[in-house]
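Batch job 17 of 40 flagged for manual review because the log was empty.
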Amino acid sequence: MVLGESPIFGQIKVAYNQELDSDSIKKYLGRLFQHTFTVVKLVRTDTYIGNILVSVSFTAISLAKQILNDFTDVTALLMDVGKTVKFIARHLRDNWYESYYYR
């Protein structure tokens, strides 16, 4: 997990709401979630975490660029079952790299 990544928190909120709709959340777990949401909001507003866009995909590409220095002679094959691979492909295309394959 990348510190400050918004999609993670969004996924937790979606899961919480789904469980709430199905009456699966009990009293104490519901309080824990509500407290967590409050703390996340405080951290995002009172620190600089929310000011910088950070994602797993951007972090992965930045790390690869540090290690490889140059992507001109590199072919990338991206494989994933979720949205992350699409974000990685977008970061590659927009920032450094034009030749990649993903499935």
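Reviewer: the log was empty due to a logging misconfiguration, but the result itself is present. The chain has four helices and two strands. Unflagging and moving on to job 18.
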